[in-house]
Write a structure and sequence with these properties.
Layout lengths: L7 E6 L3 E9 L5 E9 L2 H13 L4 E5 L5 H8 L4 E5 L13 H13 L11 H33 L14 H12 L4 H5 L10 H7 L6 H31 L4 H8 L6 H11 L9 H7 L8 E2 L2 E2 L9 H15 L5 H13 L1 H22 L10 H5 L1 H14 L11
Parallel strand pairs: 1-4, 4-5
Antiparallel strand pairs: 1-2, 2-3, 6-7
Helix pairs in contact: 1-2, 4-8, 4-10, 5-8, 9-10, 10-12, 11-14, 12-13, 12-14, 13-14
Length: 409
């Protein structure tokens, strides 16, 4: 087998240690392997880099093991060509597994060019990713805390969520504040309703009659305080993210125009995809990288499950949420596509398919510098107009009717 990289290294990474196998050509032309173990503190990793440099190493491969690869990548990316590889692509033959054998196997695969590097963005984009992903996790935590709050109110026979769409809106928040303060007069609490909620005052009075004890008052106060804290952190994070994406304001604006995609989702797309689409030859490549396309599983000439693979979780989550939002829109192409597929394949598969379409749209907007042009909610009717007419005519004739079609001028 041909040797692609004569001087290379494979790393087996753990939380507290890194086992490195350096392969160099010997005097007789045969490969020589040297294995050393290093710690994961900064000075240990710098010593690892110095040792590799002394050996003339040019390429270093490592598995994407949790977050433990990040410190190594940050310190060595300016000194060597690094390959971050999927662990599934570098699995050794089962049996006799040790850290030394793992790093030797990775080094052997790298030496013969059998490893495919994962996409690792540059430092500014990696920092932006950390910020957007942390914001997403805090938004999810806020949603969970709101569910806990609702659970506490249900336990107290306070049926506020049965009347108010958002119990944390202006009306709901004032009512909850007074409940925590000790107020038990349902009529007085209902009078705190604002806007359209005032039309529901009679229902509110009935919903606010319950048994709100001291421990529930304490829990609701703590939950509201936690939600307020999360709101403050999310606001600060959003301001920091907005400052970092300022150079990409044009791309953010164009992505924001896509049905179902808001400002926050557009920022996540820029953080996860970047703005340089030259790294993806076609939209099919970016869909495959994001794992938003059907999987391949064929055996004996039969197509098995087409379940999607595991891809970029943050990107996939943002796109599926955007697809579900687009599915609720009216007179839009993506909304029509969602309903067109949901009727036959179910809502979950329809959401993934629409997420794929949004990703393809994002790819072309970023690559070609174009703006989003909606095809319209009647796109599928216009595309299959003749087939729809034949199907409806056949159905009416099956019911005993005679159908004559006349075109309207």
């Amino acid at each position: 087998m041909d040797v692609v990289y004569a001087r290379c290294c494979g790393l087996d990474i753990h939380k507290k240690l890194v086992v490195a196998c350096l392969i160099t050509p010997g005097a007789d032309g045969r490969a020589q392997k040297e294995v050393r173990t290093f710690g994961t503190m900064t000075d240990d990793l710098l010593a690892l880099g110095d040792w590799l440099a002394e050996g003339g190493c040019t390429h270093v491969a490592m598995e994407s093991t949790g977050v433990y690869w990040k410190p190594i990548y940050n310190l060595l990316e300016s000194r060597f060509t690094l390959l971050l590889v999927n662990a599934q692509h570098s699995k050794a033959v089962p049996g006799r597994k040790t850290d030394v054998r793992d790093c030797e196997w990775i080094a052997d695969l790298l030496r013969h060019g059998l490893l495919r590097a994962s996409f690792v963005p540059d430092q500014p984009q990696r920092e932006l990713r950390e910020l957007t992903r942390y914001r997403t996790s805090l938004v999810q935590e806020r949603s969970r805390e709101a569910s806990r709050l609702q659970k506490t109110l249900e336990g107290a026979n306070i049926k506020l969520s049965s009347v108010a769409t958002d119990i944390l809106g202006k009306s709901g928040r004032e009512i909850l504040t007074q409940l925590v303060a000790g107020s038990t007069d349902a009529a007085a609490l209902a009078e705190l309703a604002r806007g359209r909620m005032r039309a529901k005052i009679p229902e509110l009075e009935r919903a606010l009659v319950g048994r709100f004890d001291a421990h529930q008052r304490f829990l609701v106060a703590e939950q509201l305080s936690h939600i307020d804290y999360l709101d403050e952190v999310i606001t600060r994070l959003s301001a920091e993210i907005a400052e970092r994406v300022r150079p990409f304001e044009d791309e953010i604006t164009r992505l924001d125009a896509i049905t179902g995609v808001g400002r926050a989702t557009a920022e996540v797309l820029v953080a996860e995809l970047g703005t340089d689409m030259d790294r993806f030859p076609t939209d099919r490549h970016v869909a495959s990288w994001a794992a938003l396309c059907p999987g391949n599983h064929e055996s004996a000439g039969k197509r098995q499950s087409g379940k999607t693979r595991k891809g970029n979780r943050a990107l996939r989550t943002a796109l599926v949420e955007a697809a579900q939002a687009a599915g609720r829109s009216r007179d839009t192409y993506l909304g029509a596509q969602y309903r067109h597929l949901a009727a036959r394949r179910g809502k979950k598969k329809a959401a993934v398919a629409v997420a794929h379409s949004i990703l393809v749209i994002c790819y072309h907007l970023l690559k070609d510098g174009t703006t989003f042009n909606d095809l319209g909610g009647d796109y599928f009717d216009r595309r299959d107009q003749a087939a729809i007419e034949r199907r409806l005519v056949a159905r009416l004739e099956a019911l005993g009717n005679k159908v004559v079609i006349e075109k309207v001028a």
